[in-house]
Amino acid sequence: MDHIVIIGNGIAGVTAARHIRKLSDNRITIISAESEFFFSRTALMYVYMRHMKFEHTQPYENDFWAKNRIELVHDYVHTVETAAKKVHLNSGRDIVYDKLILATGSIPNKFGWPGQDLEGVQGLVSKQDLEQLEITAPNNKVCKRAVIIGGGLIGVELAEMMASRQIPVTFLIREKGFWSGVLPRSNADLISKHVRSHHIDLREEEEMAEIIPDDSGNVKAIITKNGETIPCDFVGLCAGVTPQISFLENSGIELQRGILVDRYLETSVKNVYAIGDCAQQREPVGERKPIEAVWYTGRMMGEVLAQTLCGNPTTWNPGHWFNSAKFFDIEYQTYGWVWSTPKEGHAHFNWEHEDGVRAVTVEYDIATRKFIGINTFGIRMKHEIFDQWLTEEKTVDEVMKNLKKACFNPEFFDRPFKEILKNFRSTQHATA
Are residue 125 and residue 235 in the same domain, yes or no? Predict the structure, then answer.
């Protein structure tokens, strides 16, 4: 029986532990200083918005772990000594392992901005971030204005959180159009317009130069690269995340931006593995990025690694790309690949409803008519249908004709698929 030690109790580490327990009697220890028990990180925003309490984010009863013989250690990991197979904790305790899983997640990016470590400047990744937010921005009397830096998914979540407590928000993004490095321009513009409709002061093509302190070391204002001073009591750093791996620098484990792993998710050190946000593929899978800070990727990695550690060696093969998010009250889904600019030989079909909250963008190969991917906004679609269509390499014409079959919206929801198909066919005839 092996002792499997897991550093990190996020979705990747906990999924690995659960599946290892299902498949074996190995001893399992999870180490985390963030929280005593696993919680849903994606629900943190709803705790701040008072839609739920923190205990509601915990999917398992507190006695689940003991019942399943999963030991929980609430402590920081100081260093990892791979030669001796030891994990050294801040408390002074050492834990010996047979196999080690690194599932340490990410921390917010910092780019050396003057003042980036002041009180009132933070990201939104951990439970501790949420707790600090309750101190710094509990209401609009303590926090008279918030400034958010970076136009990613965490940034828009933080903007919605602030707005829920009537805290004025100025939101700086480098791009023209929200998340336009990922979304096609028409989609990016739709989201920018929607964010502004919620009374968010969204500033496109604007960056922060420095953060100004008051006499007590708290944030007082920011200065933009255009020289404007914006008074504020809180600065949210949401310009992406980076793997949390600094404690591994002298471990002998090969690192780049993340922890380098092979297709079996094993690091350069035998019996040491990495999964989730901190893992970096030596060779990216298809069009995927070498590091994917995505919830479902972490979950799937945990499942795959559990198979390998329990005698069924399984390579990391995540299948077709998919993701989902929420921009205030617009739900976004993507299946396959829709690039911000169509790849060579590809084209985009764009449709947008007059309500400004529903839209579809499809990417396809012009010559073969092969369906490449789809973005949907305000229209819920079924993952399994698009996964099947991508596997079967359906044509864009087949997909558009049958789009309503993939709809997940309730029966009486206004379904615009006839309008979408009519618009699609008219654009094809126009370009034929």
Answer: yes
Q: What is the pLDDT of residues 236-264, one digit of tens each?
A: 999 999 999 999 999 999 999 999 999 99
CATH number at residue 132: 3.50.50.60
Domain boundary among 220, 239, 258: 239
> Does 173 lie in the same domain as 214?
yes
Q: Distance (Å, rounded) from C-alpha 255 to C-alpha 248?
A: 8
